[in-house]
Amino acid sequence: MKFYRKLDGAVFGGVLSGVSAEYNIDLLLLRIVTLLLFFISAGLIGLIYIILWTVLPAVDSDTTIKEEIVNKLESLTILKDNKKNGLILGGILIVIGLLIFLNFVLPLDIIIKVILPVILVGIGILFILKNK
What we know:
This protein is mostly helical.
């Protein structure tokens, strides 16, 4: 048995697709377990995934990792609209800046338990109203 990346059916780099194909594990189950382990390990699984992505060979492609990343980024529709990108990036920076500012004024516990959920609910309401 060998480790490899399988790009057919891959979402990111094909590491989980390769593991799934080699060990005959359900791909969806493997993705869910990996996602849970990502949060439990505080991102360590993500680092391991990136290392495996760069080290393991892809079995069904001759493209380099750089070409794979460029192709994946070009396929994302959000990156094709420059005006939308500026709004999204600006919004993210404003929220991060507000959270950092609030951290000086209020304890982090209040920010996480009260203010952040209110912001997320507000953003959710805006998305719903915008799409009506």
